[in-house]
Amino acid sequence: MARRPLPSIxxxxxxxxxxxxxxxRTAADSATDVLHPLITITxxxxxxxxxxxxxxxxxxxxxxxxxxxxxxxxILVVVLVPYGPLLAVITLMAAAAWQGRDRNPPAPEGPDxxxxxxxxxxxxxxxxxxxxxxxxxxxxxxxGDWEDVFPTQEFDDSGxxxxxxxxxxxxxxxGEPGPRARIEQxxxxxxxxxxxxxxxxxxxxxxxxxxxxxALPTDIAAQRFVTAPGETVLGFTDxxxxxxxxxxxxxxxxxxxxxxxxRTGIRSTEPHLLAVGRPGSGTSTLLRSxxxxxxxxxxxxxxxxxxxxxxxxLAGRDGVLAVEIGFAGALAALEWAAGETxxxxxxxxxARQEGRPQPDDTKHPLWILxxxxxxxxxxxxxxxxxxxxxxxxxxLRHGRAAGVTVVVAEHFDALDSLSDAVLQHTRAxxxxxxxxREQLETVLGAPPHTTPVDQVPSGRGYAxxxxxxxxxxxxxxxxxxxxxxxxxxxxxxxxxxxxxxxxSADTDHVPAAEDPRTPPMPTEQPAITDPAPAESASTASExxxxxxxxxxxxxxxxxxxxxxxxxxxxxxxxxxDPAETAxxxxxxxxxVGAEQAS
Length: 598
Hints:
This protein is α/β, with parallel strands linked by helices. Helices cover 38% and strands 16% of the residues. The protein has helices at residues 8-11, 13-34, 36-58, 61-80, 84-99, 113-126, 177-191, 283-294, 327-353, 360-363, 374-383, 393-402, 420-425, 437-444, 488-497, 564-573, 578-587, 589-597, and strands at 152-155, 161-167, 197-202, 207-212, 231-236, 246-250, 253-257, 259-263, 273-277, 299-304, 320-324, 366-371, 404-411, 428-432, 460-465, 471-474, 509-510, 552-553. The strands form five sheets. Strands 11-10-12-13-9-14-15-16 form an eight-stranded mixed sheet, with helices on both faces. A four-stranded antiparallel sheet has the order 1-2-4-3, covered by helices on one side. A two-stranded antiparallel sheet has the order 5-8. Strand 3 and strand 4 form a beta hairpin. Helix 3 crosses helix 5 (84-99) and helix 6 runs antiparallel to helix 7 (177-191). The termini are far apart. It comes from Streptomyces asoensis. Residues 257-441 form the FtsK domain. Residues 445-486, 499-598 are annotated as: Disordered.
């Protein structure tokens, strides 16, 4: 079937509409210029009328009669005087024109002397980078005019550059990161240190736009964010960086702030996260914020290698499987996590093969939060034991399919001690605190489009999710509520988000088939049981019966293994059961007679 052509009004309508808009805009500008005196006189008459009404309202009632008589006498005199009405109209128009004038001071058409000097300094500083000796008509030359290369300039109240558009020659290698970094560093130094600048390179138009970024808010406390299950708010960024805002409570007011949302789950492309920073940069704050959000829909296992007790407020809470700070407990907890990941994979695979929905205990999210795991690596090397990081291979590789999310926080100086599995599978990255461009590019995989500063508040940094853009980040204030230096408002905000404490943890065994959620880990050192073999999952007699899963102890204690000989000796000398002894004597009459003779 032949395709019918579009009507001419649709095919050429955009051009007609654009031409009509241009004509209408030109006519409006011309009418404004012609009618400007009439608009000014009308504005002045309105102001005079408003002043007369105010004067009449302020006049006392006993004086209004004489005022009316005086006004009427003045009008009569004007009427009787030759050419009085004409002179009165001319006087009224002149007064209206004076009152209707634009009283706003005219904006300066260009920069002042100090601003011109700043622009000239910038121009001279860019000459060695944007000029060559072979250029017959150089755009940049010593003693040249800056007006040709800075078409747009904006300044703040202090007289420093707030926004600047810079033209550069076409032969400048703007596609290479090295020359770009040199230009950005130069502009940041000459425009004023201590501020964050955003650089937008227009390679097609050979223009660079420098913009001063406003400081991100640091007064946002921890709270319940309006997110869907599987979404975690890492922090907040610039409005131009994301296309979404979240309503936040700030005291009694509410405001919308653009967030950096990290999506986890089976359909996530970045299921695990790595946060890097210096001491005091806010990585522990980020992990506490993630833990409080994860406890709303899942279970959390916290392992702290620093041993400072930053997560003591989570111990014993509902949904918190364990908070481990010792090497033995961390090793046992990670062994359990690896076994739990395998169990979930086996159960989910068995359900798919039998055509049944996936069990609920395999879909319940499990979060593993590790703060400074390299501290355990040094202990493992010293004692000749297994490195706990080696146990993260299974949760990192198969965590997305099993509903397991791993979050690792480490310092910059210990990045080399992280295992290859952690570095390869944590594609969501966060860098907090002051850092150089080389460090940021090493962690994030790409340089940021802003200039990092030396002095930043806690929780300030950059975030990059997978291969996406680099965002500025400010982590919500989530301090340790047990810290004396914490403010009362932030302490109460964190305490309000903590789940209630567990009522009872004395049960020895909890069958996983009765509880759809993952069996809770102990608050002390957990004992690890071997995962159920794949053959046991296929012993269900009917397709509708639940698949048996392993049983996990809730409060076991790890003890040293007892030798087999000692156990056998104890069993030989153990007292026999009286009922069993009587039954054996009844079956052996010779033994009874020997005992009576003795």
